[in-house]
Amino acid sequence: MVVISNSKAIPVGLTYHPDRENWHTRTAQRLAEDPSLPTATLPYGFPSKLDSPLVWEGKDWTDEQQWVYNLSEADLKEIDSAVKHFHGLKLHLGHVSKDTFPLPTLASTLHSLSAELHSGRGFFVLRTLPVDEYSREDIVLIYVGVSSYIAPVRGLQDANGGVLSHIKDLSATQPKGAIGGPAYTTDKQVFHTDQGADIVSLFALETAAEGGISRISSSWRVYNELAEKRPDLVRTLAEPWPFDEFGRNPPCTLRPLLYFTDSKAILQYARRYFTGFLALPRSNDIPPITEAQAEALDTLHFLGEKFSLGLNFQKGDIQYINNLAIFHARDGFRDEGAKTRHLLRLWLRNEELAWTLPNELKPLWKNTFNVSPEEQTFALEPVIRDAVKGRS
Known about the structure:
- It contains nine helices and 22 strands.
- The chain is an alpha+beta fold.
- The chain has one domain: Double-stranded beta-helix.
- The strands form seven sheets. Strands 3, 4, 5, 6, 8, 18, 21 and 22 form an eight-stranded mixed beta sheet that branches.
- The radius of gyration is 21 Å and the shape is globular.
């Protein structure tokens, strides 16, 4: 059940956008070939069930006030005062911190929300910052300053110190073949985690005219479903996979998607590393993924979809998620006029609350968070990150 092209084997039907019928067909075929799969043993040390506030389904949340913190007028005045304070220091933006962006009253709330990310439900939304009342430079300052209370260490997302990314459709302004990731299109993004970050934050400068709903899902809930019904897929996810490096050296890296470390399950993957996307097709001459891995990829997506929560992401909102235990997706969208979807993103880490990382992930984290304040840059306009630039 494979197609061979340009010296690489790709399981039939495996594309960036999962196909439910292909998933069912592959699952049925594998179970027919080996009916013992649902009775396989879990990998050594992996639990039969996770019990935590991180185990939830979208239907468990009945009111968005359960995860939204509404910034008060007093909070916004305190933030505005912090902007003025930082400007008075005449420091490089990389030096934004709790010390240089003082929020004496709001700080305790933000610290509690950070704890919620690490040991609670794993997500929350701050609502809402008055985007149109500030320059782009100052709204970035506010985003970075507030986020320093959630997780003070910022991660590198691109070459040359870039710690701020823009998520925006650039397909109309970029040359053909320049885009290799869905973040820079209006396309649907399937469930994934970002590579090498504890906390992923998104700030909505503007929302789309239609669509673009942000969706999150508990990978711990997905784990429980797999551990109960398809432990063989847990084993598959916990074995090494060939991650495409898209022309870098080495051409691929081998590591699991799923880990269990220090009593915590950690999921780290993005589907495009195994399927390619637009101008970054899967590389030639790297190991193929197996039928079991193809089924596992689809199962992650469709279970993530089944248990997901759609967030009512509004202009001026900041979303924070635990990137180790929650994976996220986005609906396709349509822009029109001023309603042009535009998000900012930070990769963050809180050293005091951070989870213990498995050894296989430590190099990724070292690459992400090894950037000094002086080296940090903050792009004010959208650019395509090097990691998802096409090869043309």
